[in-house]
Amino acid sequence: MMKLMINGKATELDTEPDMPLLWALRDLLGLRGTKYGCGKGLCGACTVHLDGQPRRSCQLTVADAASGEVTTIEGLSGNGSHPLQQAWREFNVPQCGYCQSGQLMSASALLASNPAPSDAEINSAMAGNLCRCGTYPRIRAAIRSVAADADSGAGARAAEDDA
User: Could you read off the pLDDT of 56-91 as tens digits, one per residue?
Assistant: First the structure.
């Protein structure tokens, strides 16, 4: 049995320690918001947080994740009220939507560590997340919007309301 902390809840999984975290999340726990993209950690569709840092769950084993706290897109906000999720809707970011959970997880980690990033910092933080639909300008605009709201206090209030 492997013990993990996922989305703030202690979880035990009856699996091999070398199972990719992505498959444990999707197949064993039914957390299907985290997507399989390339299986090589190159596209970012499977991004989750491990101790607040964006990580590719296809490249993490269950044993790797057992040492920290995992947050998936479901843990970002159960009802879609996280300020980034709201901005994603406001700016019509998703087209096909497949990459969006990974995009949101990378963006939320960026804003947690840097609440007022420059465009260059946004581009750098988001560079590992590929979007086949090319919505990068809308992704940047949504992130800038949340950062601006945080500067004015509105984003912080929305995040507190979600908690």
Answer: 999 999 999 999 999 999 999 989 999 999 999 999
81 and 161 Cβ atoms separated by less than 8 Å: yes
Quote the CA–CA distance of 100 and 105 in Å, as a whole number. Answer: 8
User: Among candidates 87, 97, 163, 108, which has minimal Cα distance to 131?
Assistant: 97
Structural contact between residues 74 and 132, judged by C-beta atoms closer than 8 angstroms: no
- Hunting for tokens 């840097």 — which residue is that? 114
- The total of other beta-carbon atoms located within 10 Å of residue 116's CB is 11
C-alpha distances (whole Å) from 97 to each of 4, 23, 34, 122, 131 are: 28, 20, 12, 20, 9
Quote the radius of gyration of the chain (alpha carbons, Å).
Answer: 15
Sign of CA dihedral 118, 40, 57, 90: positive
Reduced to 3 states (helix: H, G, I; strand: E, B; else coil), residue 48 is: strand
Looking at residue 94, its amino acid is: P
